[in-house]
Design brief:
four-stranded antiparallel sheet; five-stranded parallel sheet; alpha/beta; 36% helix; binds adenosine-5'-diphosphate; globular
Protein backbone atom coordinates (compact mmCIF):
# COMPACT_ATOMS: atom_id res chain seq x y z
CA UNK A 1 0.00 0.00 0.00
CA UNK A 2 2.11 2.87 -1.31
CA UNK A 3 1.11 6.41 -0.42
CA UNK A 4 2.52 7.67 -3.72
CA UNK A 5 3.18 5.82 -6.96
CA UNK A 6 4.39 7.46 -10.15
CA UNK A 7 4.16 5.10 -13.11
CA UNK A 8 5.81 5.81 -16.44
CA UNK A 9 5.78 9.58 -16.10
CA UNK A 10 6.98 11.59 -19.09
CA UNK A 11 7.06 15.37 -19.43
CA UNK A 12 8.31 17.67 -22.17
CA UNK A 13 7.97 21.45 -21.93
CA UNK A 14 7.10 23.31 -25.13
CA UNK A 15 5.86 20.14 -26.79
CA UNK A 16 5.14 20.69 -30.47
CA UNK A 17 6.93 24.05 -30.40
CA UNK A 18 10.25 24.99 -32.00
CA UNK A 19 12.36 24.10 -28.93
CA UNK A 20 10.85 21.30 -26.86
CA UNK A 21 12.57 20.56 -23.52
CA UNK A 22 12.25 16.88 -22.59
CA UNK A 23 12.56 16.64 -18.80
CA UNK A 24 11.16 13.34 -17.52
CA UNK A 25 11.07 10.13 -19.54
CA UNK A 26 9.17 7.03 -18.40
CA UNK A 27 9.93 7.69 -14.74
CA UNK A 28 8.49 5.44 -12.03
CA UNK A 29 8.89 5.66 -8.27
CA UNK A 30 6.97 4.96 -5.10
CA UNK A 31 6.86 6.11 -1.50
CA UNK A 32 5.58 3.55 1.00
CA UNK A 33 3.56 4.27 4.13
CA UNK A 34 5.80 5.86 6.76
CA UNK A 35 8.72 5.90 4.35
CA UNK A 36 10.99 8.92 3.97
CA UNK A 37 12.57 9.04 0.52
CA UNK A 38 15.32 11.39 -0.63
CA UNK A 39 15.24 12.77 -4.16
CA UNK A 40 18.73 13.71 -5.28
CA UNK A 41 19.22 15.39 -8.62
CA UNK A 42 21.64 17.81 -10.27
CA UNK A 43 20.17 21.21 -11.05
CA UNK A 44 17.96 21.10 -14.14
CA UNK A 45 17.33 17.35 -13.93
CA UNK A 46 13.61 17.85 -13.38
CA UNK A 47 13.31 17.63 -9.60
CA UNK A 48 10.82 20.51 -9.31
CA UNK A 49 8.86 19.22 -12.29
CA UNK A 50 8.61 15.81 -10.64
CA UNK A 51 7.48 17.31 -7.31
CA UNK A 52 4.88 19.45 -9.09
CA UNK A 53 3.47 16.40 -10.88
CA UNK A 54 3.47 14.33 -7.67
CA UNK A 55 1.85 17.28 -5.88
CA UNK A 56 -0.94 17.51 -8.49
CA UNK A 57 0.11 21.05 -9.36
CA UNK A 58 1.09 20.07 -12.90
CA UNK A 59 0.16 17.19 -15.20
CA UNK A 60 2.43 14.77 -17.03
CA UNK A 61 2.20 14.12 -20.78
CA UNK A 62 1.80 10.42 -20.02
CA UNK A 63 1.89 8.06 -17.06
CA UNK A 64 -0.11 7.75 -13.88
CA UNK A 65 -0.01 9.41 -10.44
CA UNK A 66 -1.53 7.26 -7.70
CA UNK A 67 -2.21 8.75 -4.28
CA UNK A 68 -3.16 6.13 -1.70
CA UNK A 69 -3.89 3.80 -4.62
CA UNK A 70 -6.22 6.22 -6.39
CA UNK A 71 -5.24 7.26 -9.91
CA UNK A 72 -5.34 11.07 -9.89
CA UNK A 73 -4.06 11.61 -13.44
CA UNK A 74 -7.51 11.66 -15.07
CA UNK A 75 -9.39 13.29 -12.22
CA UNK A 76 -11.00 16.71 -12.60
CA UNK A 77 -9.13 19.83 -11.50
CA UNK A 78 -11.58 20.09 -8.65
CA UNK A 79 -10.90 16.65 -7.19
CA UNK A 80 -7.16 17.10 -7.73
CA UNK A 81 -7.35 20.35 -5.73
CA UNK A 82 -9.35 18.59 -3.03
CA UNK A 83 -6.85 15.72 -2.85
CA UNK A 84 -4.01 18.23 -2.69
CA UNK A 85 -5.64 20.02 0.24
CA UNK A 86 -6.52 16.86 2.14
CA UNK A 87 -3.65 14.50 1.43
CA UNK A 88 -0.57 16.57 0.65
CA UNK A 89 1.71 18.90 2.57
CA UNK A 90 4.27 21.12 0.85
CA UNK A 91 7.52 22.66 2.01
CA UNK A 92 9.74 24.80 -0.19
CA UNK A 93 13.16 26.38 0.08
CA UNK A 94 11.50 29.66 1.05
CA UNK A 95 8.91 29.58 3.85
CA UNK A 96 6.03 31.36 2.03
CA UNK A 97 4.35 32.22 5.34
CA UNK A 98 1.73 34.97 5.28
CA UNK A 99 3.59 38.02 6.63
CA UNK A 100 0.61 39.74 8.26
CA UNK A 101 -0.30 36.70 10.38
CA UNK A 102 1.42 35.18 13.42
CA UNK A 103 3.15 31.80 13.41
CA UNK A 104 0.12 30.18 15.07
CA UNK A 105 -2.31 31.84 12.65
CA UNK A 106 -0.29 30.60 9.69
CA UNK A 107 -0.89 27.05 10.97
CA UNK A 108 -4.52 27.63 11.96
CA UNK A 109 -5.71 29.16 8.67
CA UNK A 110 -5.25 26.08 6.42
CA UNK A 111 -7.15 24.04 9.00
CA UNK A 112 -10.08 26.47 9.03
CA UNK A 113 -10.11 26.31 5.22
CA UNK A 114 -10.42 22.54 5.60
CA UNK A 115 -13.42 22.80 7.94
CA UNK A 116 -11.64 22.23 11.26
CA UNK A 117 -13.22 24.04 14.22
CA UNK A 118 -11.29 27.05 15.52
CA UNK A 119 -10.53 25.64 18.96
CA UNK A 120 -9.22 22.35 17.57
CA UNK A 121 -7.16 24.21 14.98
CA UNK A 122 -5.59 26.41 17.69
CA UNK A 123 -4.76 23.33 19.77
CA UNK A 124 -3.15 21.58 16.84
CA UNK A 125 -1.11 24.67 15.97
CA UNK A 126 0.19 24.88 19.55
CA UNK A 127 1.02 21.17 19.56
CA UNK A 128 2.93 21.41 16.28
CA UNK A 129 4.82 24.53 17.40
CA UNK A 130 5.78 22.75 20.62
CA UNK A 131 7.10 19.78 18.65
CA UNK A 132 9.45 22.04 16.69
CA UNK A 133 10.48 23.95 19.84
CA UNK A 134 8.65 27.16 19.01
CA UNK A 135 5.74 27.36 21.45
CA UNK A 136 7.24 30.67 22.69
CA UNK A 137 7.05 32.09 19.15
CA UNK A 138 3.34 31.38 18.52
CA UNK A 139 2.36 35.05 18.49
CA UNK A 140 5.30 36.31 16.46
CA UNK A 141 5.01 37.29 12.83
CA UNK A 142 7.40 35.78 10.27
CA UNK A 143 9.54 38.94 10.11
CA UNK A 144 10.20 38.62 13.85
CA UNK A 145 11.59 35.09 13.43
CA UNK A 146 14.99 33.88 12.29
CA UNK A 147 15.31 31.99 9.00
CA UNK A 148 15.49 28.68 10.83
CA UNK A 149 12.42 29.52 12.87
CA UNK A 150 10.46 30.60 9.79
CA UNK A 151 11.23 27.27 8.15
CA UNK A 152 10.17 25.34 11.27
CA UNK A 153 6.83 27.18 11.23
CA UNK A 154 6.50 26.29 7.54
CA UNK A 155 6.94 22.59 8.47
CA UNK A 156 4.11 22.95 11.00
CA UNK A 157 1.89 24.58 8.39
CA UNK A 158 2.60 21.74 5.95
CA UNK A 159 1.47 19.24 8.59
CA UNK A 160 -1.51 21.30 9.77
CA UNK A 161 -4.10 19.12 8.04
CA UNK A 162 -2.32 15.83 8.83
CA UNK A 163 -1.43 15.01 5.20
CA UNK A 164 -0.69 11.48 4.02
CA UNK A 165 2.41 12.67 2.19
CA UNK A 166 4.88 15.52 2.62
CA UNK A 167 6.56 16.86 -0.51
CA UNK A 168 9.60 19.01 0.22
CA UNK A 169 11.84 20.84 -2.25
CA UNK A 170 15.19 21.73 -0.63
CA UNK A 171 13.47 22.40 2.71
CA UNK A 172 16.62 23.79 4.34
CA UNK A 173 18.29 25.01 1.14
CA UNK A 174 18.28 28.71 1.96
CA UNK A 175 19.74 28.38 5.47
CA UNK A 176 23.41 28.56 6.37
CA UNK A 177 24.99 25.08 6.77
CA UNK A 178 24.95 24.97 10.59
CA UNK A 179 21.33 26.10 10.83
CA UNK A 180 20.38 23.83 7.94
CA UNK A 181 21.55 20.71 9.80
CA UNK A 182 19.71 21.68 12.98
CA UNK A 183 16.50 22.54 11.18
CA UNK A 184 16.70 19.36 9.14
CA UNK A 185 16.94 17.38 12.40
CA UNK A 186 13.73 19.07 13.52
CA UNK A 187 12.00 18.16 10.26
CA UNK A 188 13.10 14.52 10.47
CA UNK A 189 11.96 14.24 14.10
CA UNK A 190 8.61 15.76 13.20
CA UNK A 191 8.14 13.38 10.25
CA UNK A 192 9.17 10.33 12.30
CA UNK A 193 7.01 11.29 15.31
CA UNK A 194 3.93 11.65 13.16
CA UNK A 195 4.63 8.57 11.01
CA UNK A 196 4.38 10.76 7.93
CA UNK A 197 5.47 9.58 4.48
CA UNK A 198 7.75 12.03 2.69
CA UNK A 199 9.55 12.72 -0.56
CA UNK A 200 12.30 15.23 0.16
CA UNK A 201 14.47 16.74 -2.55
CA UNK A 202 17.93 17.79 -1.44
CA UNK A 203 21.38 18.45 -2.87
CA UNK A 204 22.91 17.48 0.46
CA UNK A 205 24.08 13.86 0.25
CA UNK A 206 24.66 13.64 4.01
CA UNK A 207 21.06 14.59 4.66
CA UNK A 208 19.88 12.19 1.92
CA UNK A 209 21.81 9.32 3.52
CA UNK A 210 19.75 9.74 6.69
CA UNK A 211 16.50 8.98 4.90
CA UNK A 212 15.13 5.46 4.27
CA UNK A 213 15.96 5.40 0.58
CA UNK A 214 17.61 7.61 -2.02
CA UNK A 215 16.24 8.08 -5.53
CA UNK A 216 18.56 9.69 -8.05
CA UNK A 217 17.28 11.66 -10.99
CA UNK A 218 19.40 12.39 -14.05
CA UNK A 219 23.14 11.81 -14.41
CA UNK A 220 25.19 12.50 -11.29
P1 LIG B 1 15.28 21.13 -11.25
O1 LIG B 1 14.25 21.39 -10.21
O2 LIG B 1 15.84 19.74 -11.18
O3 LIG B 1 16.35 22.15 -11.31
P2 LIG B 1 13.16 21.73 -13.15
O4 LIG B 1 12.14 20.67 -13.00
O5 LIG B 1 12.88 23.04 -12.53
O6 LIG B 1 14.57 21.14 -12.67
O7 LIG B 1 13.45 21.97 -14.70
C1 LIG B 1 13.94 20.95 -15.54
C2 LIG B 1 14.19 21.52 -16.93
O8 LIG B 1 12.98 21.96 -17.51
C3 LIG B 1 15.13 22.71 -16.94
O9 LIG B 1 15.94 22.62 -18.09
C4 LIG B 1 14.20 23.89 -17.03
O10 LIG B 1 14.82 24.97 -17.66
C5 LIG B 1 13.05 23.33 -17.84
N1 LIG B 1 11.76 23.94 -17.49
C6 LIG B 1 11.21 23.98 -16.27
N2 LIG B 1 10.00 24.57 -16.29
C7 LIG B 1 9.79 24.95 -17.58
C8 LIG B 1 8.73 25.59 -18.26
N3 LIG B 1 7.62 25.99 -17.63
N4 LIG B 1 8.88 25.80 -19.59
C9 LIG B 1 9.99 25.38 -20.24
N5 LIG B 1 11.02 24.77 -19.66
C10 LIG B 1 10.93 24.54 -18.35
P1 LIG C 1 18.22 29.97 14.74
O1 LIG C 1 19.66 29.72 14.44
O2 LIG C 1 17.65 29.11 15.84
O3 LIG C 1 17.34 29.92 13.53
P2 LIG C 1 19.09 32.68 15.26
O4 LIG C 1 20.34 32.35 16.00
O5 LIG C 1 19.18 33.16 13.87
O6 LIG C 1 18.08 31.44 15.33
O7 LIG C 1 18.25 33.73 16.09
C1 LIG C 1 18.22 33.67 17.53
C2 LIG C 1 17.00 34.44 18.04
O8 LIG C 1 16.97 35.78 17.54
C3 LIG C 1 15.74 33.76 17.59
O9 LIG C 1 15.02 33.33 18.72
C4 LIG C 1 14.95 34.80 16.82
O10 LIG C 1 13.63 34.91 17.29
C5 LIG C 1 15.68 36.09 17.03
N1 LIG C 1 15.80 36.74 15.72
C6 LIG C 1 16.55 36.32 14.67
N2 LIG C 1 16.44 37.13 13.61
C7 LIG C 1 15.55 38.08 13.97
C8 LIG C 1 14.99 39.21 13.31
N3 LIG C 1 15.29 39.55 12.05
N4 LIG C 1 14.11 39.98 14.00
C9 LIG C 1 13.78 39.68 15.25
N5 LIG C 1 14.27 38.61 15.94
C10 LIG C 1 15.14 37.83 15.32
Amino acid sequence: SDVLRLEGISKTYGKGGPAPVPVLSDLSLSVGRGEVVALVAPSGAGKSTLLHIAGLLDTADSGRVLLNGRDMSDESDRSRTEARREALGFVYQFHHLLPEFTAAENIVLPQLANGVADRAAQARAQDLLTRVGLSHRADHRPAQLSGGEQQRVAFCRALANAPALLLADEPTGNLDPGTSDKVFDVLMALVRDTGLSALIATHNLELAARMDRVIRLGAE
